Amino acid sequence: MSDIVISNKEKLKRKKERILEDGIDSLFVVSDFDRTLTKHFSETHKVLSLVQMLREEGYLGEEYTKKARGLFEKYHPYEIDMTISFEEKNAKMEEWWRTHNQYFIDYGLNTRVVDEMVKKRKAGFRDGAIEFMTDLHENNIPLVIISASGLGFVIDDYLEKNKVFYKNTKIITNYIEFDEKGMAVGSREPVITTTNKYLAAKEHMSELKNINGKKKNIMLLGDSYEDEKMANSFFHEDILKIGFLNEKVDERLDDYKGAYDVVILNDGKMDYVIELLDELK
To answer: Coil, strand, or helix at residue 32?
Structure first.
C-alpha cells in the first residue's frame, strides 16, 4: 500500500483547480503541531508528549503519576471512541483537561521541570516540515497552529530554537501560568482539547481577522480524526484536508478517508504536502 491515500481523486482535483484559479494569495494553512508537524515515532519508539512524560516518568511524584494515569484510563476511551456524539466527547475531554490542569498546580509543576523535560524529549520535526514552514514564510502564506497540548507554551520555544517562528505564524494553544518562583498557578482560557480546537480558534478571531478577512482557501493538516474540524470557525470557500494516520492504519483508514481529502500513512514525510503547495502556486 502506498503511504499516500487519495480519498476522492475527482473531488481533490476540483478543489485544487478552484484554489489555483483564486491564486496562492488566497491560501492560508491551519495545522496541528504534535505528531503533525512533528514525528510520531523516533526511531522505533513512540514519541511521548510532555504531559505523557510527566505521567510516565515520575517528575511530579508517585501520587501525581497514579492520579494522572487514572485520568487517562477513564477518559482516553472516550477520546478514541468513534461512536459517541461530539457533545458527549467534547464534555469528557474538557473534564479531563481541566482536572489535569489542576493537578499541575496541586503537585508542583514548575519551570525547572518543564525545562528538564524539553531537553530530554526526543521529538523532532517531521521530515520536510521545516522546509514546508520556510516555504510558507517565503510565499507570505499564513500558518495558524492550533494545539491541544497541555503544555503547549513550549511550542513557541521549539519553533524559535529551530529558527522557524516566522512572522506569518500564529499559535493557539494552552498556556500554563507560572508565578515569580516558577510554580504553576493557573491556566489561560479557553482550555483547548482535542475536540474543541475550532471553538478555541473562534475565541481568537479578532487576532486572526487580517488572515481570515483576506484569505478564503485553507490547507488543513492534522493527525487526529477530530482535527479535520479545527478550521470550522474560519470563513472559507475551499478547504483541502490532509490527515496523518501514524498508526493503527487498518483499523482507522476508512474513517480518515471520510474526514480527509488525502491521508498520509505510517508517520510519513511532508514531501506530498510540499509538492501540493508547489502545485498551488
So the answer is: coil
Most distant pair of Cα atoms in the chain: their distance: 58
34 is a catalytic site residue: yes
**Which CATH number applies to 4-280?**
3.40.50.1000
Q: What is the mean pLDDT of residues 173-190?
A: 94
**Of the candidates 136, 202, 190, the residue with the CA atom closest to the CA atom of residue 168:** 136
H-helix or E-strand spanning residue 240: strand 238-245
The answer to whether residue 22 is catalytic is no
Cα–Cα distance between 114 and 158 in angstroms, integer?
13
Which residue is catalytic, options 3, 34, 115, 157? 34
Catalytic residue among 3, 22, 25, 32: 32
Hey, what's the cell of 120? 530530554
Q: Which three cell numbers stand for residue 56?
A: 510516565
- Phi, psi angle pair for 17, to nearest 5°: -65, -40
Residue 84 has phi, psi (to 5 degrees) of -80, 160
Query: For the segment 155-170, what is each residue's pLDDT rounded down to a tens digit?
Result: 998 899 899 999 999 9
Taking only the tens place, the pLDDT of each residue in 24-33 is 999 999 999 9
CA distance 15 to 210: 24
Query: Beta strand 238-245 with 217-222: parallel, antiparallel or unpaired?
Result: parallel
The DSSP line for 74-95 is HHHHHHH-SSS-HHHHHHHHHH
